[in-house]
Write a structure and sequence with these properties.
The structure holds 2 protein chains of 2 kinds.
Chain A: H1 5-8, H2 11-20, H3 23-43, H4 46-60, H5 62-72, H6 77-100
Chain B: H1 2-13, E1 16-17, E2 26-27, H2 34-41, H3 44-55, H4 60-67, H5 71-83, E3 88-92, E4 100-104, E5 107-115, E6 118-125, H6 129-138
Parallel strand pairs in B: 1-6
Antiparallel strand pairs in B: 2-6, 3-4, 5-6
Helix pairs in contact in B: 1-2, 4-5
The chains are: A mainly alpha, B alpha+beta.
Keywords (chain A): Membrane, Transmembrane, Transmembrane helix
Pfam families (chain A): DUF7521
Transmembrane segments (chain A): 20-37, 49-73, 79-100
Amino acid sequence: MLDTPLQSIDLETLRTIRQVSEVIPMIIGLGIGYLAYTAYRQNQSRPMLYIAIGFILVLFVQAPLALIFTYVLELPTAVLNSLLQIPEFTGLGLILYGLWMPRRD
Amino acid sequence: MASLTEAGQKAQNGTTYIGKTRDGTRTVSGVRDPEALADLLGDECTRTILVETKKEPCSAAELSDCAGVSEPTVYRRLERLREYDLVTEDIQPVTDGKNYKLYRTDLDGIELDLSEDGFEITISRRKRMADRFTQFVEGS
């Protein structure tokens, strides 16, 4: 009998890998946010500040917030998920606002 | 560098083919005479300026030190490089009211391709990511 690769990985390992992989979008999000912030500083472009904060809110702050809500405040999952949507919506709104706002020369 | 100058001379004799715009690159359409560009790059001082301004934005005085030539020579080379849009200048405000300029290049490569129609010069540039992001958002 040959073992398929799936059988050799148990669900617990898979879950851990998936949780750790949450770090990847966080790092990329931080990179994009930092780039937008640099652009704001160097080009004195206000829209870039909103884009920077937006990216950080959407991609970076959610995982640390989730950890705090789960382990420090011990909130139930339903409340946790609702609260985590706030930075997501705010961030997306800020990106949209940054793209919409007029440019000042 | 000898090969570039030689290529320029060949281009002078043959047909100078102006390339089409490709994605991410800007072709030579702005370059009036490719021979002069090849000539310009044949100069060691010009190449030093490009190398130094690629590392970080430099003032004319710094460039003069690096290349070991006088400042007027540096300014002449910079002027010619600016004609081809190979260097840009940033004005740095100083507190005493006298501004000075920092020169920078976003040149990524100059490609010389030989086809049956002649030589084609392709200039590719890579702007700083922060500037590209700003342009993407502001659409300027």
